[in-house]
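[agent] plan:
  1. take the single chain provided in the ticket
  2. run structure prediction with default settings
  3. attach structure tokens to the ticket
  4. add a short note for the reviewer (M.T.)
[agent] executing step 1
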Amino acid sequence: MKTQMLKGVLIHWNDDKGCGLIRPDASHADMATLHGPASEQDISIHISVLKHMSRRPKVGDTIFFLIETKLDSKLNAIQAHIEGVEANTDDVKENKPYLGNGNSKIPISSSAVIARLLIIAVLLIGGSLIYQMFTDTNTTEDVHRTQ
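[agent] step 2 finished; step 3 output follows
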């Protein structure tokens, strides 16, 4: 099931903070949120969801967006775009897997994964050989002592 994009007008924008408010179109009265119809609530929007656009938003722009409800019950716009404004394809980055705990922003390539696996394999083999040499040496010394 495809999610319907909502439509609204940017009624407030603080360019210094990179955030503003969208007033949803009255046609979205049937869309329910935790605090009533979506058309009766202003939706927060951050510049990060519009970073792919070729210009910054302006008051009066028509915005298409999806709604995300935060834990504090505030509504935020996500996956947004400005009507009539081209997307800046130069800024769109390919989705690559990230290394770390989810907070890290270090992309990792397949060659880096292979290199790390090879390092781990070498360390395991080296450790195994050293362990064998150590246990073989102790076994040989024990045999000489008992004779």
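[agent] step 4 note for reviewer: The chain has a mean pLDDT of 77.
[agent] ticket updated
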